[in-house]
Amino acid sequence: xxxxxxxxxxxxxxxxxxxxxxxxxxxxxxxxxxxxxxxxxxxxxxxxxxxxxxxxxxxxxxxxxxxxxxxxxxxxxxxxxxxxxxxxxxxxxxxxxxxxxxxxxxxxxxxxxxxxxxxxxxxxxxxxxxxxxxxxxxxxxxxxxxxxxxxxxxxxxxxxxxxxxxxxxxxxxxxxxxxxxxxxxxxxxxxxxxxxxxxxxxxxxxxxxxxxxxxxxxxxxxxxxxxxxxxxxxxxxxxxxxxxxxxxxxxxxxxxxxxxxxxxxxxxxxxxxxxxxxxxxxxxxxxxxxxxxxxxxxxxxxxxxxxxxxxxxxxxxxxxxxxxxxxxxxxxxxxxxxxxxxxxxxxxxxxxxxxxxxxxxxxxxxxxxxxxxxxxxxxxxx
Length: 382
Ligand SMILES: Cc1ncc(COP(=O)(O)O)c(C=O)c1O
Fold this sequence. Notes:
Elements: H1 15-26, E1 29-30, H2 42-53, H3 66-80, E2 90-93, H4 96-107, E3 113-118, H5 124-130, E4 134-139, H6 149-155, E5 160-166, H7 178-191, E6 194-198, H8 218-221, E7 224-229, H9 230-233, E8 242-245, H10 248-261, H11 267-279, H12 287-301, E9 317-321, H13 330-340, E10 343-344, E11 346-347, E12 360-364, H14 369-380
Parallel strand pairs: 1-10, 3-4, 3-5, 5-6, 6-7
Antiparallel strand pairs: 2-8, 7-8, 9-12, 11-12
Helix pairs in contact: 1-13, 2-11, 3-11, 4-5, 4-10, 12-14
Bound molecules: pyridoxal-5'-phosphate.
């Protein structure tokens, strides 16, 4: 029997796969994995059907369809006020996860350290390890899951190459402030670091706040790979398509990796996205209000529950603090409630090297109002 010495000995089946499988097995309401249970805009689905019927079925250019990259450059100018060259600074990729992997592969060498802020999305550390780097885990502050700049500074060494950030933040729903971005800019300039900025939930920001993108801080923009996902913005997570924005020299290196990992993203999907954005350029700007209404419905329906709730500032995730109910560890409680109550969520401890002290579970509110109300009714009975 041939065996391999694992390059990722600590990686097993992801928590998303496990909890979604358990939810299906138990017939539970699935508020675990982050995907909408409603359809993507009709115009977008029709555009995909049209794209395949009209013959957009062969390889796209490696960097992505020019028509889509032009739409994206226009969007970035309108929503973030930044000018981006679609030819040299935008690369369409098969999902933000692939974009992040390519950015890390292009930047990190053996022994380089990369600072990640825990809890963090589960693809970061394996990408760093596969590049031969070392993930240096720094916890976010436990109260509001915001960056603790003192601890981040203390973690920087002469080997630090990159810092990975994620705003709006999965799994906690926190967001970076202008002050956080200023701090980050000072830090990376002082230590000559690169930034891998995961902004896949850029449009899902609430209560009048604005998304802070690395593209809007000149000192950050020069050193950053900024990652976006059409899956999140257009409710098509299964289309696995995203894009990366980076200055020309960084983009050139990212593309060298991308062309041998995937080479291209799916052509008709790119064509459909380009057509849809041309027809409905304001669609992404309506998302914040749409998801804020869902967040508020969910929280209001839980007002008589025993959970402590701080409304999420961004993403489509809401943390519920269960410390007044039980001291059971989050991963156990999550499985117990999926089986016994029929509501599946996600524990946040698998996203951290050191288990966080806060007793919270993550619930996805990208679901129909009926499903959210049904889940809340069950959760109120605890
Ligand atoms: C923070 C974060 N980054 C990246 C991704 C992956 O995006 P994509 O499906 O485009 O690879 C997700 C998906 O859940 C996410 O939550």
